Amino acid sequence: MTLTQAAFGKTTLFRQVLMALGGAALIAAATQISVPFFPVPMTLQTLAILIVGLSFGARLGTATLVTYLGYGAMGLPVFANGMNGLAFAGPTAGFLMGFVLMAGLAGLAADRGVAKGVLSTTIVTLGLSALLYVPGIAWPMAVASATGVEAGWVGQGADYYLANFTAPFLIGDAVKAILAALVVTGAWKALKARRS
To answer: What is the pTM of this model?
Structure first.
């Protein structure tokens, strides 16, 4: 059972649509809170994505991220630094695709009861934050050039991606993963306390 199921009971399709739209808007808002780095900015995006995935479950969490990416594809400035669908050909495209996987797997952990306590939820969020680097780096390192994208960040060596796409974000991503775990487990405790 997910947090939203525990809070609201069985949800209707209409409520699920509203939750997906609202969750995507929350992620878009969190994304605009950023610390400038080049070529990839640091935002509160992954914090919001982990919270949505853990709270909504795999299906609704994935649908929420697809909705979020759809906002950007429609031209809305929902990505970091006010970017829109052009980001799908930029240095963050791999991370954008990875966000769907992140939310889905966080939701799956919640659905299966793996992410229940603070420790287990933190392990899940830290693991997913680390896993996000796989598509995030695969895109600029190999996939972008295979699709015809040409830029200074495409096809560089591993040292370049470690220095620019990974190292500056490790501590921040770990902190956001821990915060997401604390927020969701805190919400569970508050819900249980209210019912007792």
So the answer is: 0.94
